[in-house]
Amino acid sequence: PWVNFIAGATGLGWLRFTLADVIGEVIWVTLYTGLGQVFAANIALVADAMSDIVGFLVALVVAAAAGLWIRAVLRAQKARAAGKTGAAAEPDARPA
Prior knowledge:
By secondary structure, the protein is an all-alpha fold. The chain folds into two domains: 1-41; 43-85.
């Protein structure tokens, strides 16, 4: 979608833009049609592979979110403990 703005900002003529756009569309349509032809016979295998990938990605996102949450909780506990004792939150922190 940003190609239109970039083409206009750079002063690309409408004829060159249209020619490049048509060539790009032909390439994308050919690519998607070719992929459809290749994977049409193996759609069940592709669906199984995608479900495995999606499951892995969901597990990865959940693990990353849990790690970030644990880190935030530990930092908050460390900051509270440092506030009660008056010590610096991190002992190796250098003064500014």
